[in-house]
Amino acid sequence: MAWRTRFAPAPTGYLHLGHVVNAIHVWGIARAFGGDVLLRIEDHDRTRCRAEYEDALLDDLDWLGFVPDIGRTDSFRAARHGTPHPHPQRQSDNEDRYAAALAALSARDLTYVCTCTRRDIARLAPHVPGEEPRYPGTCRGARHAEAESLARRVHIADGVEPFEDRRLGHMQQSPAAQCGDLLVRDRHGQWTYQVAVAVDDMAHNIDVVIRGEDLLDSTGRQLQLAALLGREQSPQWWHHALLVHPDGRKLSKANHDTSIRERRAAGAPAAALLGEAAFLSGLLPAARDLSIDELPALFR
Ligand code: GLU
Ligand code: ZN
Question: Which ligand does the CA of 216 lie closest to?
Answer without folding.
Answer: 1
